[in-house]
Design a protein that fits this description.
The chain is α/β, with parallel strands linked by helices and about 325 residues long. It is about 40% helix and about 25% strand.
């Protein structure tokens, strides 16, 4: 019997039910990025405490030509697939280097936010009208699986981008599943350019996820408000506090929302009521930090060759270029 394909709304409903019914409770971080959440994340990227964006932009401004030179040793034409495209600032720099280096490309950005993709397409039509864009809305895994079965893309070499610290949001199991799934889609010699936030002084890391202006707190609260808007919930954000911790051994930054009072939440579309005792928590997100050795081990375990690690001047961030063996 063929399994039913859920709509995005149905998947959000099911994942919310699963997370709030679990012990301990959790919400999946991919649902941060509705229209409002995407706007708040743009604010986060411009915070002085959020070093990740500036660090990665520095890498692309100074080293994207070198990345393209490495890719051009294998291919003269590629399909550039970006997972979680966001606002496309770094990709814009990279595509400019591709064009300057005579590396021909088609561009396929994939994002869970249709609004972000609409803005991205409009921007790229102005900045790079010569580049063909095939934007896809959806989950990385589902879109990549469909891509594997599309004849028009089966013969073109691929360069897959996973920029920012997106991989850091996965558990170890999810990271292994994700990279193994990607490996099975890619052909030998295809490239994977992946961003890693590096381990560093905790006093640099923590303010990026718990800033004094409360923008990251608002970002987390918006997830509850999205449940209210889309699933007929009645979360009251004033009943929850935002808490962030960092473990320098595992490299994990974990974000929680913690009930500061006893409260009851009704979610109409689920026809369920959830009771929170004071100090009960909802696990919202993990953002893992890595060492260079961690990155190399992950690549080797999945039969990717590390071609080059590109670091910013502070050694805060790394974009690692891998090639499938």
């Amino acid at each position: 019997m063929k399994s039913q394909i859920l709509t995005a709304s149905e998947q959000f409903q099911n994942d919310t039910d699963l997370g709030l019914s679990s012990t301990p409770r959790f919400l999946k971080p991919k649902y941060f990025y509705d229209e409002e959440g995407s706007k708040i994340f743009q604010e986060i990227m411009h915070m002085p405490e959020y070093y990740l964006t500036d660090s990665e932009i520095e890498i692309f401004e100074n080293q994207s030509d070198s990345m393209v030179q490495e890719i051009s040793k294998s291919f003269s034409e590629v399909l550039l697939v970006e997972l979680g495209s966001g606002d496309g600032i770094k990709t814009d720099i990279f595509i400019r280097s591709c064009l300057n280096g005579n590396l021909q490309l088609k561009y396929m950005p994939i994002d869970i936010s249709a609004d972000i993709l609409d803005e991205l397409k409009s921007k790229f039509k102005i900045n790079h009208p010569e580049v063909e864009i095939d934007a896809r809305v959806g989950d990385y895994f589902q879109v990549m699986q469909s891509l594997k079965n599309e004849p028009e893309y089966s013969d073109i070499p691929k360069v897959v981008l996973l920029l920012g610290s997106n991989v850091g949001n996965f558990s170890n199991q999810e990271t292994n599943q994700f990279i193994e799934h990607l490996k099975n889609i890619l052909e030998p010699n295809d490239f994977f350019l992946i961003g890693f936030d590096l381990k560093k002084n905790p006093n640099v890391i923590l303010p990026a996820y718990n800033d004094p202006s409360g923008i990251t707190k608002r970002f987390n609260f918006n997830h509850l408000l999205r449940v209210n808007r889309e699933l007929n919930g009645n979360f009251k954000v004033e009943n929850f506090d935002h808490h962030v911790s960092y473990d320098p051994i595992s490299g994990e930054v974990k974000s929680y929302l913690i009930a500061n009072t006893e409260c009851t939440v009704i979610i109409g579309s689920l026809e369920k009521t959830f009771t929170f005792n004071q100090w009960d928590s909802i696990y919202m997100e993990c953002s893992r930090k890595y060492s260079i050795q961690d990155m190399v081990s992950i690549a080797n375990n999945h039969r990717f060759q590390v071609i080059e690690n590109y670091l910013d001047s502070n050694r805060f961030f790394c974009n690692s270029l891998w090639q499938k063996k």
